[in-house]
Amino acid sequence: MTPEEEVIDPSSLTKFRKLRLKDVKLLDLLINKTVEIALEKEIIKSKSIIVDATHTKARYNQMKPKEVLIERSKRLRRAIYQIDESMKSKFPSKTKTDVLGDEIQYSQKLIEVIEREETLIQYPAVKEQLNLLKETVADDVEQLKCSKDQNAKVGHKTADSSFFGYKTHLAMSEERIITTGEKSDGKQLQNLIEKSEEAGIQVEAVIGDTAYSEKENIIYSNTNKINLVAKLNPNSTQGTRSKEDEFEFNKDAGMYVCKAGHLAIRKAR
């Protein structure tokens, strides 16, 4: 875009998010095209990939739809009060029921009152919270009734803290170009290698942390003549536990987790 061009209409972004992003293969398509161009331009020359995982929160958390609306309208009012506290008298009365429709109506009235204040909505802090609430109200009518992401799970960052979402596994070349990604928990090294090869990367070595040094990954790497560079974890690689298929070692929390996502409560001395 050139400086004199008009910016994209917000509705275009909303339509793109709702219509185009439904294609689950879209991300793979974009990444593969990026890698293809990088190979053609000889930007990627290495034959090693670096693998790691990060915590990704679900788009929808475990809050009820009404709770989400209450929280976002509260943030909007708070942003306005920091600029003009007298607006409090102009706002509609808050709902006293647990009905989602009532909260939607309150949010719509709140939006109407604020949009009449042309000076107020020019403030970036107010504009951001206003747009977020408007999008939430629009989503409520269509899809916010399903507030919990059915594919997301409770994960553990440490033994004392958790999050609701995904463990996103990424692979990238030594030139720092992402070659693939997997939005799933559990053992993903084989998928990362295979999808990187499908994208055109010749994988001769894989560099990762302790989480990728499980026995299955070592066997897979040796079978496919891939050099796996990862520090061994005796607890997860030497078979010192029983029922290896039923429990996985969570590196971040330093505990074992069952298939249902429950973290161990203590360590044996």
Q: What's the architecture of the largest domain, going by CATH?
A: 2-Layer Sandwich
- Helical proportion, percent range: 25-40%
Mean pLDDT, to the nearest integer, reads 81
Top CATH class of the largest domain = Alpha Beta
Computed Rg = 24 Å
| Biggest beta sheet attributes | 6 strands, mixed
N-to-C CA distance: 62 Å
Query: If helices are DSSP runs of H or I spanning 4 or more residues, what is the number of helices?
Result: 8
Low-confidence stretches: none
Q: How many structural domains can be distinguished in the coordinates? A: 2
Element order: H for helix, E for strand: HHEHHHEEEHEHEHEE
CATH T-level fold name of the largest domain? Nucleotidyltransferase, domain 5
Shape: extended
Number of strands: 8
Helix and strand content put the structural class at: alpha/beta
Q: How much strand?
A: 15-25%
Structure in words:
It is a single chain. By secondary structure, this protein is of the alpha/beta class. The protein has two domains: 10-58 and 151-258, Nucleotidyltransferase, domain 5 (2-Layer Sandwich), CATH 3.30.420; 65-142, no CATH class. It has helices spanning 10-19, 26-40, 65-81, 100-115, 124-142, 189-198, 215-223, 234-237, and strands at 48-57, 153-156, 162-173, 178-183, 205-207, 227-229, 247-250, 255-258. Strands 1, 2, 3, 4, 5 and 6 form a six-stranded mixed sheet that branches. Strands 7-8 form a two-stranded antiparallel sheet. Strand 5, helix 7 and strand 6 form a beta-alpha-beta unit. Helix 3 runs antiparallel to helix 5 (124-142). The longest helix has 19 residues, at 124-142. The N and C termini lie far apart (62 Å).
